[in-house]
Structure formats: structure tokens, C-alpha cells
Amino acid sequence: MNEMSGVSGAVTAYLAEQEQKGFLRFITCGSVDDGKSTLIGRLLYDTKLIFEDQLAALKRDSKKHGTVGGDIDFALLVDGLEAEREQGITIDVAYRFFATDRRKFIVADTPGHEQYTRNMATGASTADLAVILIDARKGVLTQTRRHSFIVSLLGIRHVVVAVNKMDLVDYSEERFREIEAEYKAFGGTFDFETLEIVPVSALKGDNIIDRSPAMPWYEGPTLLDHLNTIEIDGDESKRPFRMPVQWVNRPNLDFRGYCGTIVSGSVRPGDSVAIAKSGRTSQVARIVTMDGDKDLAVSGDSVTLVLEDEVDISRGDVISAPDSRPDVTDQFSAHVIWMNDEALFPGRPYLLKAGSQTVTATVTELKHKIDVNSFEHLAAKEMHLNEVAFCNLSLSSPIAFDPYETNREMGSFILIDRFTNQTVGAGVIWYALRRASNIHLQALDVDKKAHSELKGQKPAVLWFTGLSGAGKSTIANLVEKKLHALGRHTYLLDGDNVRHGLNRDLGFTEADRVENIRRVGEVAKLFVDAGLITLVSFISPFRAERQMARNLVEEGEFIEIYVSTPLELAEQRDPKGLYRKAREGKLKNFTGIDSPYEVPENAQITLDTSASDAESLADDVVRYLVQHGFING
Amino acid sequence: MLEIDIVPERRSHLKRLEAESIRIIREVAAEMKKPVMLYSIGKDSSVMLHLARKAFYPAPPPFPLMHIDTTWKFREMIAFRDRMAAEAGMELIVHTNPQGQAENVNPFDHGSSYYTQVMKTDALKQALSLHQFDAAFGGARRDEEKSRAKERIFSFRNSAHSWDPKNQRPELWSLYNTRVKAGESIRVFPLSNWTELDIWQYILAEDIPIVPLYFADKRPVVERDGTIIMVDDERMPLRDGEVPEMRTVRFRTLGCYPLTGAVESGATTLEDIVQEMLVARTSERSGRMIDHDDSASMEKKKREGYF
């Protein structure tokens, strides 16, 4: 292979030249029948990317499905799905590849129908430039405006408006100028870095590659000239360093590498780095690849970093420049495109995936929807398929991000339905909300591990849940006494006691009950950090809130203990006379009477108070702690 | 050896493709419970395997390789397969449809379409269900064929392994939705954005081993209905008047030998192959008989679970 014969020398030179070509990803969009697929077919044909056998198949298919009489129907070349060819429309985004002597291109041909806007957004998310087609006979349509808006929203800075089918308006300059003015009137508001408006006929080939003799009045570049020469300023390597950790590579005890793709900036061995969420810092020791260690890796590279120190890093962490860290927040404002038939409602939980981080998210507030035609802001209570809205989101745990405008990879997310697993929305983050923003967690030297080692125990939350009167406090109290006798460090948070102090401003509405649990969960988390075995005795009737409390601490630290007592028995005991009051209607929203109790599905421990006494049930809990290594026996 | 990093500050096209594929492969390993890499022994599979090794170096890839063996592959392919799996330090699972084998389903007596259904599509579905894989890597590229151009990189399959092209999950940025329920799975195509030229260029640049059948050599062939078929073993029934003759041929694509057309060629080096490809005016799948029936045939097969 190293022999440089005549042929191989020429081929090697050719390949080296291929490697040096520029690269551009663009989308084509526009309304139905504006001729997008025909345009791409034309580009492939004219750049000689269509092979003879494909051409033969194309001629055959043109006779069967074609819409252009005896001519070759270029659209059939790209409309790959059977349903599309039958209906003559493009349903899904198709990716096409072609090259000129200057550049390689990936084109995402996106569908025009409004109902397929989500597929258009799919294509736009990875493009650097958009070609928006307009049918010269029809001028600017709603879809033109919608697509321009989405293109702008998804951060595409370069736009070409191709005014197509000029042959059908007799190549009229007047008509072209009209459309040009109409587009600029609203397109100007998007502040695209470049905006080029070109009169073309994809079908006849005018101004696609060669200048059209039929339109001598047009002095701008042809479409391909423009695509060949436009400068896309995509130099992510000059931005602050970010590498979301995708995978921790641990083949043996001597090697621990963090694998990921650098999404911005560059890195060299010896560079200081910070872990965005924990605040820990270290230095890069090695940049490992199968081709040998590198002394530089830049944005776009997929690498494996080895750090100098044993820091705790896992998937979802972002290794970043220490002097310019990403924001860490659990609340932010974002534009969301909704892609699901079922509407989005504020308050409903979805999974949010941003980089390698996946958390639970809810839209807490729909600020406004955006009318895609007038770009007006409209008030909204819910969001439907293909709508775009500006909203606030709240997350179950913080993520590291940068605003989408400054970093596409660090500022984008998708929303996934937790039950159907469908991708139901996509969003671009603008800014973190108030308190969460810019408070970087201070990494403390005396940490949880140090605290718990001193105490000789593994900290945990023992979360006792069950009906009022089930015996939670009694058992929790006994457990704490037994642990205390064993010399263990504990603290008991009791629902009623907490409501007299920390939570005395809270009532019993649903929102207050959620806040009640959230605060107790946070306090329990701090106590766990202090190395304590923390006992929490709360009715906590809803699974979602117990899950929320569980999510606050690390995996394995949350022990859900279901104190199981039949309602009749609890009501019979009624130690505080509350059931009686509830039955008399003097107490509203009482769990078990007029408010539901959701039984835990996967409690670590279930204590049946109708079968055993409190003393032996407390022993069960202590035994669990011994068996699972939280304390020594 | 071709020097790729000529201008270090400008990221080369191949490096960009390589990085994207590695990212995809790692994402699967990180998020899926039980992935497998489908290994067809062809040049695209060779590139995919190479990328998987790069993704996890110095560890071996954390998933097995699986080959659906129709029993009609070229013999050289099988030898190559075993060698590559051992070299990568990966487990190799080989599956053949036992019913098909018992009934001796073959391309000559049963026709290419039924044979492909039983020995490839059904066999693949059997193997995926048997091992309960929830993700399977495939080496398909979007430039190969029209329905592939529309397929996502992470392509969802229901519990019957079928593809619903009208209801694909939106796939934005590099945020791949990997969520599946029990029995469902995802086909993952790390080479989606590679072209045939990219593949050859990368093989050349990285010195990736490929099956020798890609290079021209004297091989026993017969010409049948305009296609040159290699007589790889004695199971191939010869028609009246057919006499195998030695011709200098090579293969642009590899599959089951009775269904894979050879081309007459003198290309004995990778450079020769690339040069031949550059002047070729016939796209690579035309050597595969499966696509000839109808241009919508690939989509149909994919809906039914074909890779």
C-alpha cells in the first residue's frame, strides 16, 4: 500500500485532496410542491452523483409515478419511502450526500407538510445553513414563515431563499423582486448572519450550477456557487472547553478513562479542568486514543481523558474549563417545540435528555406560545403538536448547560414521554432561573465520606411511610433508640414536629404537601451528608413525592419503609382523634378518608403492624441495616 | 500510508465521521442493557468493528459480535470472520436458522426472495429474540439506498422487530432516544453519514483488514443472466452448458456467494479499488440481486425486520 506507483500515486493525491475539502451540512425546506426534492435531485444529477443503474431505475419509476410527463422526475430519486411516492409528498427527512471540487455536502431534505414539522426540525438541528424554497407563483406562505422561524430558533445563521419555478412565471424580474421584498420584510427580524435570495428553476437547471441565460438581470451567485463559497464560522475550538462524559472506561484497576466527545474548546495534557456539577478540579494526565496518546484534542474529537487525581466522575458529568464553567441549574427558561399528538400540560413530568444527562422535568410555566405566521406571543395553558412556546422548566436534579446561542450541544435537550418512550419535544435553553443560577457548588474537603468514616457507619435515609396512626413514629422512635444503644449517630425527623418549626408556614393543600416533603427531603439530604442515619416519619402518601425525596440522595442511600396497617385498624387506633374529625367532615384532604394513599410498589422494607408488634418490627429494621452494611452488628 | 492530518487546525472529513461514529457506539454501550454488533464480514462491518475498538480502547468493546450465517457465505469470509473476532477480543455469536437448515432452504431451489426471508431476516429475528438484545449495530449507510436515506441513526423496532417508517422518533442534534420497553429494540447505524468513498478512504488511511475477495484474483466463475457468479463450493448446481471458467474478478460487495455478482477487474490494491470506484458508473448495490425486483423492495424487507 505504501508503494507509490503511477496509479496509486494519483489516487493517493486525489484522496488527500478529498480530505482537504470543506464540509457543509444544510437543509432544504419550504411548503409542499415548492420543489425541494426536485432541487436535490437536480444537484445530485448535475454533480454526477447519480449512477447509471439508479438513472435506469429512475427512468422506469418516472413512467410509473412521475408527475412531469416524459421527463425525468428528479423528486423520485429522493422520495424514498413507498407511501411518499404514491402520495407525491415527502414525509420524512432524507439525508443525501454530494460533493463538488470544493466541498462535501450532507443535505437534509425535509418535508413541507405542516404535520411533519417535527421532521423538519430534526433536519434543521444538525444543519449550518438552510435553503428555503418559495414557489415563484405562490410567493411567501405560512410554511415559509414557519420554517424561517424554526430555522432561526434552532440557531441556523445562514439562509438561502431559493425562489423556484421561475420558468413558470416567465423568468420575471418583477415577480422575483416582489417576493424578495416580501421575504426581507419579515426575514430581517431574524437577524440571520447571511441571507441570499436566488431565482432558480430546479426542473430546468436555471441558476442551480450554471448562470441562467433566461435571467440576465440577476447578478448574484448561483445556488451552488453560494453553497461552495459561503464561510460558516463554526470554530467551536476557540470556545471554553466542554466534554460531557459518556462512558467511564475501567478495563482494570490501573486505568480509569473518561470517554466523551469534546463539544467545544480544546484540551492538552497538563490543562486544569473542573467537573461542572461537583466543582472538583484536576489536571489532564493523558489523552488516550487507539492511535496513541495525543498532545491536543479539539472540539468534535471523540477521546478518552485520564486525569491526575482520583475524582468521582460518572456519565452525565461535564469536564470543563475551570475558569469558564457551564451553568449548573435545576430551573431554566427555554423554547420548546412540541412534537407529540397528545398535548403538553404544565406540571406533567417528562424525561429530559441533555448531552449525557437524563433527569425528570416538568414545565412549570408556559410563558407564551408563538404564532408561526405573525410571530405574535399568545397566552397558553397547553401546547399542541408542532407548536412552539417559551416556558420555564424545573428538573429533578441539576444539569450543567450553556445557553444554546453560545453552545448548541450544551444548550439543547429533548423531552421523552415516560410511558410511551416517544420523543415528544425538543428545546433550546436560554438562561437559568434566579437562585439556581451561578451558584457553583463548593466542593468541601470534609465531605460525606469523611463524615461517615469518623462515625464508622454508612449514612442513609430511613423513610417511614404509611397511614396516619399506622405506627410510623412509634417504630421509628424504637429504631432510633436501638441504634443509639449500639452507638450509632442518628436523627429523627417527625412529620408533626417539623410542621411546628421548619414547615409551620405550610398548610395542607396539594402544593403545600409537596413543598413539605421537598423541604424534609432536603434536610434529610444534609443530615446524610453529615454522615447520619436519618429517620423520617411522614405519611407521604404520593409515590411521586417519595420518588422526589429518593432522587435527592445517592442510589442505595434511600430506604423506603412501608408501615403497612389496614385502614380499619389505623382508624380504630386513632391516637390523635384525627380520623374521627375527618369522618365528621371537620378535617379536609385527610389521607385514607378523602385523599388517597398510594402504596409503595418497591419498598425496601415492609412492616406489617397487624402481624407483629412494634418492638420486633424495629428489630427487623436494625437487622436490615446490619445485613446491608450500613452498620456493624 | 495516506497522511490524513495534513492541516491539523482543520478537522479532516474522516476524523469528523470517525468521531461521530465513536460517539454513537459509546452512547449505545452506556444506555442500552444488552447491545450486540451485527457483523456481516463486509467492508462496512470491518470499518464498524474498527470504530468500536477505537471507542473503548484500551478495553475491548463491551458487547459481542453476531453473524447471521446463511451457510452460503464465501468460505474466505468465514475464515476472516473468526480471525477478526479473536483479534478484537470479542465474543462471536454465530446463528443459523435451524428450521431453514433442516429444510435445506437454499437460493437455488427456493429463489432469492424466500431464501433471504428465511435464512437472513427470520434468522436475525430469531437470534435477537433468543439473546434478548435490546440494541443491534448495523453497518448500513444512508447513501446506499433510498429508504435507508430516511432512516434514523437510532431506529426503533417494535417487539416483532418491525420498522414503522411513518412514525419514526424525531432525532435532533446528537441526542439519541434509547428508551425501549421489554421486547422492543433499537437498530443503530453508526455509519449512517458515511459514503462508499469515505469507507474506502478510511480503510486505506487506517490500514483496516478486509476480506481478500474485494481484490481481483483468478476465480472460478460462471456467467448467469448477465451476472458473474463465483462457484465457491460444490453445492452450486450448474445449468446445462455451464462450465466454470477462471476469470480475474473481484467483488464490490459481499454476501451469499450465489447471490453476489462479481465484476471483472484487475484491481489488486486499495488504490486500484478506489480508482475503479471513482470511474465506476454503476452503484454498489447493483451487485446484490435482492434490490432488483422492485425499487421499494428494500423498504418492504426493512419493515419486516431485514437489516
UniProtKB/TrEMBL annotation, chain A:
<comment type="pathway">
    <text>Sulfur metabolism; hydrogen sulfide biosynthesis; sulfite from sulfate: step 2/3.</text>
</comment>
<dbReference type="InterPro" id="IPR002891">
    <property type="entry name" value="APS"/>
</dbReference>
<dbReference type="InterPro" id="IPR050100">
    <property type="entry name" value="TRAFAC_GTPase_members"/>
</dbReference>
<dbReference type="InterPro" id="IPR009001">
    <property type="entry name" value="Transl_elong_EF1A/Init_IF2_C"/>
</dbReference>
<dbReference type="InterPro" id="IPR044138">
    <property type="entry name" value="CysN_II"/>
</dbReference>
<keyword id="KW-0511">Multifunctional enzyme</keyword>
<comment type="subunit">
    <text>Heterodimer composed of CysD, the smaller subunit, and CysN.</text>
</comment>
<protein>
    <recommendedName>
        <fullName>Multifunctional fusion protein</fullName>
        <ecNumber>2.7.7.4</ecNumber>
        <ecNumber>2.7.1.25</ecNumber>
    </recommendedName>
</protein>
<dbReference type="GO" id="GO:0000103">
    <property type="term" value="P:sulfate assimilation"/>
</dbReference>
<dbReference type="GO" id="GO:0003924">
    <property type="term" value="F:GTPase activity"/>
</dbReference>
<dbReference type="InterPro" id="IPR031157">
    <property type="entry name" value="G_TR_CS"/>
</dbReference>
<keyword id="KW-0536">Nodulation</keyword>
<dbReference type="InterPro" id="IPR054696">
    <property type="entry name" value="GTP-eEF1A_C"/>
</dbReference>
<keyword id="KW-0418">Kinase</keyword>
<dbReference type="GO" id="GO:0005524">
    <property type="term" value="F:ATP binding"/>
</dbReference>
<comment type="similarity">
    <text>Belongs to the APS kinase family.</text>
</comment>
<comment type="similarity">
    <text>In the N-terminal section; belongs to the TRAFAC class translation factor GTPase superfamily. Classic translation factor GTPase family. CysN/NodQ subfamily.</text>
</comment>
<dbReference type="GO" id="GO:0005525">
    <property type="term" value="F:GTP binding"/>
</dbReference>
<dbReference type="GO" id="GO:0004781">
    <property type="term" value="F:sulfate adenylyltransferase (ATP) activity"/>
</dbReference>
<keyword id="KW-0547">Nucleotide-binding</keyword>
<feature type="binding site">
    <location>
        <begin position="466"/>
        <end position="473"/>
    </location>
    <ligand>
        <name>ATP</name>
    </ligand>
</feature>
<dbReference type="InterPro" id="IPR044139">
    <property type="entry name" value="CysN_NoDQ_III"/>
</dbReference>
UniProtKB/TrEMBL annotation, chain B:
<dbReference type="GO" id="GO:0004781">
    <property type="term" value="F:sulfate adenylyltransferase (ATP) activity"/>
</dbReference>
<keyword id="KW-0547">Nucleotide-binding</keyword>
<dbReference type="InterPro" id="IPR014729">
    <property type="entry name" value="Rossmann-like_a/b/a_fold"/>
</dbReference>
<dbReference type="InterPro" id="IPR011784">
    <property type="entry name" value="SO4_adenylTrfase_ssu"/>
</dbReference>
<comment type="subunit">
    <text>Heterodimer composed of CysD, the smaller subunit, and CysN.</text>
</comment>
<keyword id="KW-0808">Transferase</keyword>
<dbReference type="GO" id="GO:0005524">
    <property type="term" value="F:ATP binding"/>
</dbReference>
<comment type="similarity">
    <text>Belongs to the PAPS reductase family. CysD subfamily.</text>
</comment>
<protein>
    <recommendedName>
        <fullName>Sulfate adenylyltransferase subunit 2</fullName>
        <ecNumber>2.7.7.4</ecNumber>
    </recommendedName>
</protein>
<keyword id="KW-0548">Nucleotidyltransferase</keyword>
<dbReference type="InterPro" id="IPR002500">
    <property type="entry name" value="PAPS_reduct_dom"/>
</dbReference>
<dbReference type="GO" id="GO:0000103">
    <property type="term" value="P:sulfate assimilation"/>
</dbReference>
<comment type="function">
    <text>With CysN forms the ATP sulfurylase (ATPS) that catalyzes the adenylation of sulfate producing adenosine 5'-phosphosulfate (APS) and diphosphate, the first enzymatic step in sulfur assimilation pathway. APS synthesis involves the formation of a high-energy phosphoric-sulfuric acid anhydride bond driven by GTP hydrolysis by CysN coupled to ATP hydrolysis by CysD.</text>
</comment>
<comment type="pathway">
    <text>Sulfur metabolism; hydrogen sulfide biosynthesis; sulfite from sulfate: step 1/3.</text>
</comment>
<feature type="domain" description="Phosphoadenosine phosphosulphate reductase">
    <location>
        <begin position="35"/>
        <end position="261"/>
    </location>
</feature>
<dbReference type="Pfam" id="PF01507">
    <property type="entry name" value="PAPS_reduct"/>
</dbReference>
<dbReference type="InterPro" id="IPR050128">
    <property type="entry name" value="Sulfate_adenylyltrnsfr_sub2"/>
</dbReference>
<keyword id="KW-0067">ATP-binding</keyword>
<dbReference type="GO" id="GO:0070814">
    <property type="term" value="P:hydrogen sulfide biosynthetic process"/>
</dbReference>
